Structure formats: C-alpha cells, structure tokens
Amino acid sequence: MKRVPTTIGFVTGYAAFYQIAPYWGVSTSAIMVLFLISPFLICYMAYVILKHGVPSAHTFEEKFYDDLD
Questions:
Q1: Which domain holds residue 19?
Q2: Where are the strands (E) in 1-69, listed by range?
C-alpha cells in the first residue's frame, strides 16, 4: 500500500517541477524532455492506483461520492 502514495507524491512533484522549470531558467530542450516523459508517468501512476489501490466498499448506487458521508 505504500507504493500508491509514493508514486502519487513523485508524479505530483514532477508536475510541479515541470510547471516551475521555465521560471528557474531551465533550458527549452530540457523542458521538452520533461514534457515527453510526463504522459508515461501519468499512465504509470494510473496503473499503480488501479492495481494497488484500495477499492471502495460501497457501490455507486449506495454512495455517489465516497469521500463524504
């Protein structure tokens, strides 16, 4: 279960770095490489969440939104 929060944190940090990189003076070619890598990271994050995440105990008809009671 520790794999899911770690993956989400890493991909979120990567996305934040990608957004801030132009303001830090990172070269355009490096930003393009970050851009080309990002879809693979997003797909990997979705795979990890779907594979190792904990499914809800309720059906869609029981609870529309599972975070609130």
A1: 3-52
A2: none
Backbone dihedral angles phi then psi of residue 32, each to the nearest 5 degrees: -65, -40
Residue 41, Cα to own-chain centre: how many angstroms? 7
| pTM of the entire predicted model | 0.77
In sequence order, the 6+-apart residues with CB closer than 8 A to the CB of 62 are none
The candidate with the shortest Cα–Cα distance to 14, out of 3, 33, 25, is: 33
Please give the mean pLDDT across all residues of the chain.
Answer: 90
For 45-67, how does the pLDDT look when each residue is reduced to its tens digit (9 = 90+)? 999 999 998 887 888 788 877 76
If one counts the domains in the chain, the total is 1
Sign of CA dihedral 46, 48, 53, 56: positive
Longest dimension (CA), the chain: 51
35 found inside a domain: yes
